[in-house]
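Now for one protein, fold included:
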Amino acid sequence: MKITYIHHSSFLVETESACLLFDYFEGALPKIPEEKMLYVFASHRHPDHFSKVIFDLAAEREKITYILSSDIWTKRVPEAIREKTHFLDPDTVWEDGQLKVETYKSTDEGVAFWCTADGHAIYHAGDLNHWYWDGEEEQWNSDMTAAYRSEIEKMRGRTADLAFLPLDPRQESYFYLGIDDFVKVVNVKTIFPMHFWGQFDVAVRLKALPCSESYRDRIVEIEKEGQEFIR
């Protein structure tokens, strides 16, 4: 697979027969092979994960399908391409014979996506994360911990070839919690940090923590937008 980091939580994954574009709202898109089906995902309605610019891609290619979280209003999709658009609730399975998508409920808005294409398992968390913050009430943080761990428990024992997971420096000393919890439940072969607000050193910071000893060699260090990886 070829993976391109675009911006924030946006990646393009190219498999043998398909391309999967996640949470694009701005940034330079790489060239997408016209012969392959393009699946465009939006995990929720927040402007750093969804923009109507994704619908401009439909004017450039016939082979395109949109897979959006159900919290995104139908009226935001141009009427001419609604037949190519699928809105998914949490705990939903959608497939078309080429791609299978399973959704999980975010701890913020919308959904996370577990995708299977050409035998590859690709997980994009959206904003499903362990959002633990200094300054929040203890009960709020406790409830968040329980909600996140309960949701990822549904994936226990599964194997993801790629996992795109939030690593948000705004959480300060708690920035690592979501990934650290996730790898205890899911066997992840390659971890791509995302949602790091331009602070590209977050992967290095996570690798420096003792808790990451068992999985730090699986964490990708992203250095710039447009960077490509082969896995």
The two ends are 5 Å apart (CA to CA). Residues 138-153 form the longest helix (16 residues). The chain has a mean pLDDT of 97.
